Amino acid sequence: MIRLDALTKTYGSGSAAFQALRGVNLQIDAGEFIAVMGPSGSGKSTAMNLIGCLDTPTAGSYRFHGIEVGALDRDQRALLRRRQLGFVFQGFHLLARTTAQENVELPLLYRGSGRRERHALARDALGRVGLAGWEHHVPAELSGGQQQRVAIARAIVTRPAVLLADEPTGNLDSERSREIMALLSGLNSEGITVVMVTHDADMAAYARRIVRFHDGRVVPQEAPAGAAVA
Q: Does the keyword Metal-binding apply (predicted)?
């Protein structure tokens, strides 16, 4: 599904240039659950941004289902992002005065979906993350774990092929973190490819494969000791 070949990303120029990625090679198959780990500045977030079409590489190749993403223009990349990719972040990024259902409907609104379709798909997505009956609650009425569930529902409401999660449990306690990871594992079992950046080895253990970054490069890959945790 995703193939990175000799991918390079450089910020700045001349003496101020910083090479965030130094020829990254990585393949992610459809249906995988990947945990991306590495110290700060290792390049993992840069790679996530490139995969998510939030940034463009300096050199190298990024193919999505065989399509060279670097050859796409800005509008085409935005279309790929809207139709194929879902995003979950450490911060929930919910609109404070907007209900859970309205927050989840936002990507559908940008896509131009009709009111009836938006309502049906948002309710379905909230049900999938265990929040049926919470549609009309605003974020202040929800726990941190529930807010992250709303954020995940918003990410999957467009039925993306890939879910990109950047430290999705970073703001949660241990129990809520395990709940979110069990949810991500369940979505993966339904066929969604999950690529997750995390610093937490316990959370990475839910993945089927760990990819480690160091100094802008991928180091040899491994299977996590606790793979396939329920």
A: no
Full-model pTM: 0.91
- What are the tokens at 130? 């265990």
pLDDT digits (tens, 9 = 90+) for 183-216: 999 999 999 999 999 999 999 999 999 999 999 9
Domain with 169, as residue range(s), is: 34-54+82-222
DSSP category for residue 20: E
42 found inside a domain: yes
User: CA–CA separation, 92 vs 149, rounded Å?
Assistant: 9
Number of domains composing the chain: 1
Q: Please list the helix, strand and coil fractions of the chain in percent, rounded to the nearest 5, in that order.
A: 40, 25, 35
Please check whether residue 77 lies inside any domain of the structure.
no
Residues of the chain with pLDDT below 50 are 229-230
The separation between CA 104 and the C-alpha centre of its own chain, rounded to angstroms, equals 16
Q: What digits encode the pLDDT tens for the residues 90-106? A: 999 999 999 999 999 99
Residue located via tokens 């399509």: 67
